[in-house]
Design goal:
The protein has about 725 residues and is an alpha/beta fold. The protein is built from 26 helices and 17 strands. A hairpin with a 2-residue loop joins strand 1 and strand 2.
Length: about 725
């Protein structure tokens, strides 16, 4: 007490001195012992209120990882008990009531199966009749029980008494008559004693055993919230696809009518599912939706359905088969679509040939892992997609296969101009490469020449057979967007009737297939400006790689294909390179579907050159024109030498075709008689080789060398 008083006096004295110090003195007295490196004490830090410190401590304790783990553990195991109780109660209720039969009847009615509904109704009626009989039997049970007890007691007593008499006769002692009865009484006494001892502990641990049983049922069925389950139970990526997994995924899809219908079904929704079939690197199952649920409600929730199935969005495909209210799910094995599919048969089979009319190009594999082969016979083609997704490679693969048919002629325009089509030099009759307006003009005039060739064929005598002429324009959007106008003031690009490229494409689409003049186009990022509606709808085979939006998908493939499940906009740009969605009658599509997803074989530029060399070896030699000259005087003999190229001899009809490609104005109307006239005059007449008329290169070159400069003649003259 004295020490406390002295301390208070010292503190008061110090405060008094500090209050009366001169104003110039800035060193107040302090009770704290100064440190060596501190000349003046720092001002006191603000004191945090107690309630703030308490709140922080509580928040730290509540949000601590150990607390959260303990909370999940408590919730998980308590919900196991609750869920197990619910499951056992429902099982008991189903066993004692007709609820099971009512659910089965509603399920059959919802599935449109009245005969099965009638069968379950009959089973329910039999169950109710048997239950009624059991309840009536309970009314007479006391009387029957009393009679049974009386009869049992009499029989037991009589039996024991008879046994005692037998024992007494055997032993000669009358007292043995009561021995069996006393033994029975002792047995009852021991049974009562044992029950008395066991009953107490049994009553104590019985409820706990019941809770343990309920917990076991709930744990087996994982009857706890998903967030409370252990990590290994929550992570089911790559888990096998079973009927219960599919039904649960559909139930949790967020469609109220679907969830209610599954809940009311007696088989928990199993009747909706067809058989789960192995399909390539995944499985396939048809789901018949209950009444009131539309197929587009499932289609529009593809990502959520995939996540419910423990898959990525690109690993689940939803299509609409022929059956009403049915969706077909194809679910890939986890990670399978990220594996390559192997090289093209064009690369591995050096003996492969092509047949334009009857063959199919080995383009790639479908999602089931089966060969996806495309027929190009009399089908215009359109391939589109975002940049750098494999459009040119997919288009080039088809051209490389078809080049192995020596009868097919190619006219090509590459408006990218980076050498992707160089291997067709010496294989295509025309090859124009470059991105400038001049190249667009050349490609447009090439398409117009194809229209003229088409018209010539159409006007030929009925029954005339024509080889295929494939006009390929890669990066066609450059042509549609070209603003340059010709001498007639008509634009080369655009989407109106005045556009020269647009009108040439439309004319080929309208009538070209009948005479085997076909237009193949590749274009980027389709819009109404760079891919007009009339042009895209004129293609018989429409394929699309990854796109950005659903509206672009509809432009690329059409409304019918997209409404039927085609979704190139859901392909992953950069990751699904070479994967495209095809809508065509030329490829085998599962019945009821409108499109097929194909993973195309990638053929590198080096491999493409090897395949092109094999195609060139099948031909007599093709002179490729890179620039088409128009409107000038021609030297027919020199032009014949040009189109012969390095070939020692060329069929006369091929020479005429090449001359027409060189200059439509000069040679477009030429016949065999015109060709023979020029060659006869130059003493280089055609001759027969293997029974067919040919033009010899040596004869033409010798004729050119022997004539003077003034001997040349113009085709116009």
């Amino acid at each position: 007490m004295t020490d406390l008083t002295e301390q208070e006096n010292i503190v008061g004295t110090v405060h008094h001195i500090n209050e009366h110090r001169p104003s110039g003195d800035e060193s107040p007295l302090s009770l704290a012992k100064p440190t060596d490196d501190q000349s003046a004490p720092a001002p006191d830090a603000p004191v945090t209120p107690l309630w703030v410190r308490s709140g922080r401590a509580v928040r730290t304790a509540v949000t601590h990882q150990r607390t959260r783990t303990a909370g999940r553990l408590a919730v998980r195991h308590s919900m196991y008990v609750v869920g197990g109780s619910r499951i056992v109660t429902r099982r008991a209720w189903d066993g004692r009531s007709a609820a099971r039969y009512e659910r089965m009847i509603r399920t059959a009615e919802a599935a449109g199966q009245p005969e099965i509904a009638a069968e379950w109704e009959e089973r329910g009626r039999a169950f109710r009749a048997a239950r009624h009989q059991r309840r009536m039997d309970l009314l007479t049970a006391p009387v029957r029980l009393a009679k049974g007890v009386a009869v049992g007691t009499a029989l037991t007593g009589g039996g024991l008494l008879g046994l005692g008499i037998a024992m007494a006769v055997h032993s000669g002692d009358v007292a043995d008559i009561g021995t069996p009865i006393m033994g029975f009484i002792d047995l009852v006494n021991w049974a009562v004693m044992i029950a008395t001892v066991v009953w107490g502990p049994l009553v104590t641990i019985g409820p706990w055993l019941g809770l343990l049983a309920l917990w076991g049922v709930g744990r087996q069925r994982q009857a706890a919230p998903q967030w409370a389950l252990p990590a290994n139970a929550r992570s089911s990526e790559g888990a096998p696809i079973t009927p219960s997994v599919v039904v649960t995924a559909l139930r949790d899809l967020g469609v109220a009518a679907l969830r209610t219908a599954i809940k009311d079904m007696g088989d928990a929704g199993a009747s909706m599912l067809g058989p789960i079939r192995i399909a390539g690197c995944g499985v396939e199952v048809d789901v018949t939706l209950p009444s009131g649920v539309a197929t587009n409600e499932v289609q529009s929730r593809r990502r959520k359905l995939a996540e419910n199935l423990a898959r990525h969005e690109h690993e689940v495909f939803i299509t609409i088969p022929e059956a009403a209210r049915t969706v077909r799910l194809w679910i890939a094995d986890s990670g399978a679509l990220d594996e390559p599919i192997g090289p093209s048969p064009l690369v591995t089979d050096m003996t492969m040939t092509a047949d334009y009319a009857k063959g199919r190009a080995p383009w790639g594999q479908d999602l089931r892992g089966d060969l996806a082969a495309l027929s190009v016979y009399q089908r215009h083609l359109l391939i589109t997609g975002l940049s750098n997704q494999g459009k040119t490679a997919a288009l080039r693969a088809l051209a490389l296969w078809l080049a192995l048919d020596r009868s097919v002629e190619f006219w090509m325009g590459d408006l990218k101009g980076v050498g992707d089509w160089d291997m067709f030099d010496g294989l295509a009759t025309r090859l124009i490469q470059g991105p400038t307006d001049d190249h667009v003009i050349q490609v447009t005039e090439m398409a117009e020449d194809a229209v003229e060739e088409m018209n010539r064929r159409i006007q030929a005598p009925p029954g005339t057979q024509f080889p295929a002429l494939i006009v390929i324009v890669d990066e066609a959007q450059v042509a549609f967007m070209c603003p340059v106008k010709g001498d007639d003031k008509r634009p080369y690009g655009g989407s109106s009737a005045t556009s020269r490229y647009f009108m040439a494409a439309r004319k080929i689409h309208n009538q070209g297939r009948a005479v085997n003049v076909l237009l193949w186009q590749g274009t980027q990022d389709p819009t109404d400006q760079n891919l007009p509606k009339l042009v895209r709808e004129g293609a018989h085979t429409r394929a699309s790689l990854a796109l950005g939006t659903e509206s672009q998908a509809r432009m690329a493939l059409g409304d019918k294909a997209v409404d039927g499940g085609a979704a190139p906009n859901l392909l992953r740009p950069g990751l699904d390179q070479g994967t495209l969605v095809v809508a065509s009658s030329g490829i085998e599509v599962p019945k009821g579907q409108s499109s097929l997803t194909v993973r195309t074989h990638y053929i590198s530029t080096d491999d493409a050159k090897v395949i092109a060399e094999r195609a060139k070896a099948l031909r007599d030699g093709v002179t490729t024109l890179h620039v088409i000259d128009r409107g000038e005087d021609r030297d027919p003999l020199a032009d014949i030498a040009t189109v012969l190229g390095d070939s020692p001899r060329v069929l006369t009809m091929d020479v005429i075709k090449r001359l027409a490609a060189l200059s439509e104005d000069a040679y477009g109307s030429w016949t065999f008689a015109d060709l023979r006239r020029v060659l006869d005059d130059a003493d280089a007449a055609p001759y027969k080789s293997d029974g067919r008329m040919v033009v010899g290169r040596d004869r033409v070159l010798r004729a050119l060398a022997n004539r003077g400069d003034d001997d040349s003649a113009s085709a116009a003259g």
